[in-house]
Amino acid sequence: MVRRNKDLGDWGEKQACDFLVRYGFAIVEQNFHTTTGEVDIIARKGSDIYFIEVKTRLEQALATDEAITGLKKMKFQRAVRAYSYRHDIAEECIVLAGLVVLVDKRARSVRFRMVTW
């Protein structure tokens, strides 16, 4: 079960990257890890740097903000701070976002829902 979830998550992150590129984002880095958290995708659009947490869900998905728990957001924000400090990114350029990849197996379709916070 864990392997299946990891495979689904990896596939969802690939779909998310493709989606972002289609909408004018440049992927800067994937799977940035620190001891206190991780960021799935770091992307640039214009002068903004987007730090994106990706969640992949089959059919009945939670709302984006429900899919990303408070503890996950806290760890995510710690990783964002570490990355932005290391790369000297101005706070006003930082955008935090959640992106849900919703897979409908019956319709053989994928939908995306992105929210910033």
TrEMBL record:
Any one GO MF annotation of this record: nucleic acid binding
Classification via SUPFAM superfamilies: Restriction endonuclease-like
Domain of life where this protein originates: Bacteria
Entry-linked Gene3D superfamilies: 3.40.1350.10
Pfam families (alphabetical): UPF0102
InterPro entries: Restrct_endonuc-II-like, tRNA_endonuc-like_dom_sf, UPF0102_YraN-like
Record-stated family: Belongs to the UPF0102 family.
UniProt name for this protein: Uncharacterized protein
